[in-house]
TrEMBL record:
Family annotation (PROSITE patterns): IDH_IMDH
Protein name as it appears in the record: D-malate dehydrogenase [decarboxylating]
The keyword Cell wall biogenesis/degradation belongs to this UniProt entry's keyword annotation: no
Alphabetical list of Pfam families matching this protein: Iso_dh
Amino acid sequence: MREYKIAAIPADGIGPEVIAAGLQALVALARRDGGFGFDVTSFDWGSDRYKKTGTLMPEDGVEQLKTFDAIFFGAVGAPDVPDHITLWGLRLPICQGFDQYANVRPTRILPGIHSPLEGVGPGDLDWVIVRENSEGEYAGSGGRAHKGLPEEVGTEVAIFTRVGVTRIMRYAFRLAQSRPRKFLTVVTKSNAQRHGMVMWDEIAAEVSEEFPDVSWDKMLVDAMTVRMVKQPQSLDTIVATNLHADILSDLAGALAGSLGVAPTANIDPERRYPSMFEPIHGSAFDITGKGIANPVATFWTAAQMLDHLGEADAAKRLMIAVEQVCADGVMTPDVGGTATTRQVTDAVCEAIRGAN
Ligand code: ATP
Ligand code: MG
């Protein structure tokens, strides 16, 4: 039997609630399949630890995670801890330490969930957004000169490297190739930004030669927002920079109905290190402890994790169970239902057990 070593980092707010739900579903899948299992180690890192010790995780935290097959992450952030501390104290060191340069965000309208787009339902919107996760606008380059003076200048320099752009482009083309439509949209702003963005366009054209069976097109990011709303059916796989994809994926999440159903994976495609799987939503302290956190995003990212581990059948089975439960109307209040986290989780586990 294959046993996968999973590092669970539930962290803050509703993180522990949704990670517990996700682990329950993983156990149900393993029981049903019999061919694999999980050895889960939980880490109590996060804002509570910060308040007690001054750091969100131990100094050698990233090192401690190195030997795991995957990281299953909840949510980080607390009302009384500044955002940049929680962000830079836990998630980003893991993403950077393990060079998880591909951030992968599938978006689909699940049955029973309403998109704000009129007449758009399941099947009309089925995208995967690939976000460059290691450089670009969030490289941290820049500074401020003449601080506080009338002539003050602040710069925020986007850094794109040939290595960085080529590897994310290859990942995106390969992903597009693995999907039925074999279609990729490359997003830039190369009309206004004449250097790094033009390089993106050029590298896209170069890499496309390696994938003759994938068709692709280019979009400027502003026009892309319009296309996502007006012609969602025309898109499939999408690749964009760190900043552009950050914005586009929030729009995508909203079009798909709720933050509570949006998953993400931070992938090291070369598999040198563990990849990290998490719901997109934050710690949501307004609903923490009420038992109504939507676990669907976490189930979905658990399916991404299974796929990454090579358990594609189990991943498929999990998503079929989730879609069946959504279609049956067993949903939390954020997507218009009345069920609790536990009821949704039990229903999904039941559907897993009952599936053929
Ligand atoms: P962050 O600071 O990381 O953005 P947050 O606490 O602001 O975290 P968000 O993820 O931004 O939380 O979510 C905004 C709101 O959406 C939450 O306050 C909550 O009401 C709702 N929400 C988010 N995720 C879920 C979920 N899984 N289930 C139900 N409601 C959710
Ligand atoms: Mg928020």
